[in-house]
Amino acid sequence: MTSTALRQNNRRRIYQYIYESPQPVTKQDVARALELSMPTVSSNLQDFLSEGLLSYTGTLASTGGRKPRVISLVSDARFSVGLSIMDNALRLTAVDLKAQELAQQKIFLPFAHTPAYYTQVSQLVEAFLDAHPLPREKMLGLGITFPGIVDREQQRLIFAPTLGLRDVSLEEIRPYFDRYPLFIENDANASGYAESWLRKSTRNLVYLSVERGVGGALFFNSGRYTGDNGRSGEFGHIRLVPGGRLCRCGRHGCLEAYCSTSRLSDDLDITLDEFFTMLDNGNDQIALTWQRYLSHLTDGLAMIRMALDCDIVLGGMLAAHLEKHLDTIRREVCRKTLFDHNGDFLTLDMFRANGACVGAALHHVNDFLSSF
Ligand SMILES: [Zn+2]
Hints:
The protein has about 375 residues and is of the alpha/beta class. About 35% of the residues lie in helices and about 25% in strands.
């Protein structure tokens, strides 16, 4: 290793050690853990302190002599912003280097694929930064998610049924947001990425997003599995019922046709919140609808589990209402699979409705952390 590479390697190891350390550390801790000399550790720490990436946060109580100073990560030394575009609203979230949410906002704004819409959205991003306030010089980038298939290699939005878009070049959207490094991604992929980030010990994971659209993302060996054409995880369009209900994709009997949250809201002329309130209040008709819905949802979950044999995170708007139903769903999925007796492999997403925003933002954080 050349001396430059060695220096870079030491810098990366020191930052990573402090980043991953559950509590503040001393210079001595770093030197001991990484088997580095004190002068090497000192000079690197000095650099990080002057760059604002680390700070002194006190001294250790010691028995006489000089008290060792305690060093901590400055987790908001940089931040990244996620923007989720949905058919009727936007979500904005800022996350720091530890994936902690610094600010979030939901704005009702009907989608339109027009210059006026994208101009307004870019102004809303600026207003979000000003309001919280989030200093632009610390911003790593902007991540945008769309509820549709995004082909990042070809830079095209292939299909977004809830937005009524088919085959749009991302170049039509990019110029409105090019003030910042930009990353554009499918919403379920981004949510899944956020979940896999939190569960670093989980090697394999399927994320199933249940909203008006049903989609998902697969992570194997801690990396995303995109498929040969970038279209993996389209669980919503697996045919569940031959000759069944018409799906928005134009085919019949898809999982999405049965498990879209529209089945529990728009189709009944109520909101999803109202549905679950009525369910809690013992409404018989609602309970019947829920039973039918769950039967299809657990069919889908059991197929995923049987095919992929890994943890499944259930996310999207539906997941926010599932806390008290999770045990029932786990039992039912186990009943429908061949090998499972314990449904712990199925969990709810941790970021709830903000997952897509957080995941899109985290791509820039990941780039930053990999840059050392
Ligand atoms: Zn379909």
